[in-house]
Amino acid sequence: MINALKQMQGSIITSRILIAIFGIVIFAQSGTAQDREPIVIDRCVLKIRDHIEVSSTRAARIVEMKIRLGNLVQKDELIIQLDGEIAQANYYVAQQHATNNVESRYAVKANELSQKEYQRAIQLNEEIPGARSQAEIEQLRLKAERSELQVEQAQQHHQIAQMNRELALLEVKPYRISAPISGQIVEIHKRVGEYVQPGEVIAEIVSMEEMLVEGYIPLNKAWQVRPGTSISGSISLPKLADNIGQHTNYQGQILLVDSTIDDLSQSVRFVGVLKNDTGLLRAGIPMKIVIDPQQSARP
Questions:
Q1: Backbone angles phi, psi at 263, to 5 degrees
Q2: Which residue, among 133, 88, 141, 86, has the nearest Cα to 115 in the 3D structure?
Q3: Which residue intervals of 71-193 are DSSP H helices?
Q4: Distance separating alpha carbons of residues 276 and 208, to the nearest angstrom
Q5: CA 202 to chain centre
Q6: pTM of the predicted model as reported, rounded to 2 decimal places
Q7: Which three-class secondary structure state does DSSP give residue 224?
Q8: How many CB atoms lie within 10 A of CB 242?
Q9: SS3 236
Q10: Residue 183's beta-bridge partner residues?
Q11: Among 293, 271, 297, which Cα is nearest to 46's?
């Protein structure tokens, strides 16, 4: 009887263990499936990613503005010309020196002549011993060696002239201000004829190629998201999407998952970037963002 009870208790314990293990497996499978589900954030906001203030590094007068408010410019495109006449004149002089190789050509010719004179004197003494004194031979040898050194010196002078040209060019470049990024001119603070100081802002450029998007992820899902996670976004207000004719999904990725938790909403701030393929996205537009945890970048 006692043995039967012990066997019954053992069977009950074994059954409970099996049920617990089965439940854990089901829970783990359920959790894994939930982890793979996209995270939808209904209310996010677009922000400008690149807003550049164009300024001068030289104190000078503006002589030409190649831009107007609203213009689209390309990176490295010349947009502002400052008065750099002195720097330009210095560059012109340096350019003349750098392209002038008269000294080098003369030194080479003089060396060739000196070498011929020295070799003829040696040959003459071989044919007619004593025709040229040893002192004369030594003088011709020294003349030939000096002419070789003059060739090297002329070459060094030419190289220095070329380096001075590069330095002069570096002095010219700050007076020619180019667009640091591709984008749209959104502000112009100076006009032609005005004098600017180093660091003074002349114009502002905003890039529209990519937009930042900011929102909040529920705390229980935030651990699934990390920098590099793929996202897609669409305009969350149907009427606004209808007005601009855009229901396109914009692709991008997560840049930042904040390390601070918002106590009130129990969520974590994230910042992502979306490619503005249509060029119609603007700062302030509400966006619906779908985060794909399966495309998370590895740490």
A1: -65, -40
A2: 141
A3: 85-99, 102-127, 134-172
A4: 7
A5: 22
A6: 0.64
A7: coil
A8: 11
A9: coil
A10: 73
A11: 271
Count, in order, helices (H) and strands (E) of the chain: 6, 14
Residue whose entry in the numeric block shows the structure tokens 């100081």: 197
- The token duo for 275 is 């490619």
* Between 242 and 229, the higher pLDDT residue: 229
Q: ∠ CA 201-203-208 to the nearest 5 degrees?
A: 125
Contact present, 61 and 194 (Cβ < 8 Å): yes
Neighbours of 101 (CB within 10 A): 15
Hey, what are 150's tokens? 């003059």
Give the distance, in angstroms, between the CA of residue 207 and the centroid of all CA atoms in the same chain: 14
Listed as own residue / partner, the contacts of 139-148 with beta carbons closer than 8 Å and 24 or more positions apart are 140/114, 143/114, 143/117, 143/118, 144/111, 144/114, 144/115, 144/117, 144/118, 146/114, 147/107, 147/110, 147/111, 147/113, 147/114, 147/115, 148/111
Q: Report residue 111 as tokens.
A: 């060396």
3-state secondary structure of 96: helix
Which residues, 6 or more positions from 16, have their beta carbon under 8 angstroms from its beta carbon? none
Tokens of 208: 């529209």
User: Are 179 and 73 within 8 A, CB to CB?
Assistant: yes
Q: How far apart are CA 14 and CA 18, in angstroms?
A: 6
Find where tokens 């004593």 sit: 130
Q: How far is CA 215 from CA 119, 128, 222, 282, in A?
A: 87, 101, 12, 16
Q: What is the pLDDT of residues 176-213, one digit of tens each?
A: 999 999 999 999 999 999 999 999 999 999 998 999 99
Give the neighbor-by-neighbor strand order of the sheet with 78-82: 176-178, 78-82, 60-65, 195-196
